Amino acid sequence: MRPTALFMIALRSLSRNKLRSALTMLGIIIGVAAVIAMLAVGQGARAAVEKSIASLGSNVIIVSPGAPNQSGIRLEAGSNSHFSETDADAIRAQADQVLYVTPMVRTGGQLKFSGQNWRTNVYGVYPEYLLIRQWNVVSGSSFTVSDERGATKVCLVGKTVANNLFGEDADPVGRTLRIKNEPFRVAGLLESKGQNALGQDQDDIVIAPFSTILHKVLGGTYAQSFFASAVSGNAIPDASKQIEDILRRRMRIPDGAASDFTIRTQTDIAAAATSTSQTLTVLLASIAAISLLVGGIGIMNIMLVSVTERTREIGIRLAVGALGRDILLQFLVEALVISILGGLLGVLLGVGTSAFLASTQGWAVSVSPVSVFVAFGFSAATGIFFGWYPARKAAQLNPIDALRYE
Question: I need a surface site. Which of 136, 177, 260, 304 has the fewest CB within 10 A?
Fold first, then answer.
């Protein structure tokens, strides 16, 4: 029998019970829509995490001090810092796989300006920090190497700080704010980076020369950490190894002893975050796929009922010369039509639901063509899989028994 004839027969059979066909199709519609929407949410979350990781900068390597041990009691990580500026100089001179490096100190500070105040994080770094983070100055200019060497009281402010101290859309360049009662001239306004992977506002920050914060604000001696950048993404492991070897030699750590510091790379952070988002995507897709499975069971149930109701019709067709494969194909096509139509409507509903979530909830969603094709293809496969048994049962009916069926 020609495919077009089979298709027309399937449509006529389904149109006899429009409500039942629609309800059967509903399971496929909901299943496909759920798969697409959940994959869109998962992929959107993954894209948001990757964008946030990328905002850290280019090929970033972070070196943090370890935890000291006093009388058998281990203190918090990072409280055992003996990093110095000369360590950073050694890394710059000896590590050929390191492009930029800067020591860092950080403190929380109350900022004041003309009756306004705001508490935020204040970072002391070299000018190279902006190159490592790929952070541009949108107004004014960055501080210089001369500012660093001279411990000049200048700073860069993030968008959040600027809005809260100077007012929305105000240009802070040239104004003087106080950090822990020390006057700092604002040299530049940083571009907005938004939230990081942990949900922290990266624009709520003040950046100033390392020596200024270390000596004039904190009154300290040592750096709290190092930020570095490898010459390329492929060079990150080699750069990390070079930094570790240099610091171990300078700290006189014996061979075989554990390093008294921790090195994390942008690759490590991205791998951990991406793994979490991938797990979330698989979990959401698996839950949604259950709806599609339930829809397939609904197709099998209705097709079995249809075979029972049309037993005499099947007997007549077999008696006038129809082959078993014609009967099998007829019912298989009916199941396929239900799943394909349901799949098409499910795709539209899934895309619409994703757009609705993005516009009303502000979620990051990403509907990829691959997820649409996978969901639609899975719906068609569901129709064939769950329609096969009822179709085979119809094709194996004995014509005489079918004609006598009441």
Answer: 136
Residue 76 placed within a domain = no
Give 288 or 86, the one with higher predicted confidence: 86
200/226 same-domain check: yes
Residue pair 122/107 in contact (Cβ under 8 Å)? The answer is: yes
Q: Cα(45)–Cα(60) distance, rounded to whole angstroms?
A: 22
Q: Rounded to the nearest 10 degrees, how much is the dihedral formed by the CA atoms of 268, 271, 276, 279?
A: -150
Q: What is the full DSSP assignment across 208-251?
A: EEHHIIIIIII--SSBSEEEEEESSSTTHHHHHHHHHHHHHHHT
Pairwise CA distance, residues 126 & 340, whole Å: 61
Residue at 68 is within a domain: no
Contact (Cβ atoms closer than 8 angstroms) between residue 155 and residue 185:
yes
CB atoms within 10 A of CB 392: 15
Q: Is residue 64 part of a domain?
A: no
Are residues 28 and 138 located together in one domain of the fold?
no
Task: From residue 16, give the alpha-carbon distance in Å to each of 322, 370, 384.
Answer: 22, 35, 21
Tens-place pLDDT, residues 72-122: 444 454 445 578 888 998 999 999 999 999 999 999 888 998 888 999 999
Instruction: Provide the 8-state DSSP code for 310.
Output: T
Q: What number is the average pLDDT over the span 242-249?
A: 90
Is residue 397 domain-shared with residue 319, that is, in the same domain? yes
pTM (predicted TM-score): 0.62
- Do 182 and 285 fall within a single domain? no
Same domain, 130 and 240: yes
Query: Residue 364 region, left (φ>0) first, then alpha (ψ -120 to 50), else beta?
Result: beta
Q: Does residue 31 sit in the same domain as residue 176?
A: no
Domain's final residue, options 234, 259, 284: 259
Instruction: Answer for the pair 104, 124: CB distance below 8 angstroms, yes or no.
Output: yes
Is 266 within the bounds of a domain? no
Residue 175 and residue 287 share a domain: no
